[in-house]
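Technical note accompanying the year-one report. For the benefit of new consortium partners, we illustrate the data format agreed upon in the data management plan: each record pairs a sequence with a structure-token string. No post-processing was applied to the example shown here.
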Amino acid sequence: MSTYVTKIFDRLDRVCFARYGNSSNGIVEWVIEQNPGIELYGIVLPLGITINLPDAPKKLDAPPVLKQVFLWN
């Protein structure tokens, strides 16, 4: 597990991308679960917040796949 102290204009999705190599497949939501209350800061995080970044889980739940809809056949 590592920690990250935010710099000015940091966003959680960018921090996750830098640490885990992606910001999709629920990784940002998983980091929010590991850091309760961080969602209260909004999109742009304030300076000096410590974020716990544990090792990535083996598998995260994949987001639901939406069925493609055709308006004309």
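Partners are asked to follow this layout when depositing records. The chain has a mean pLDDT of 87.
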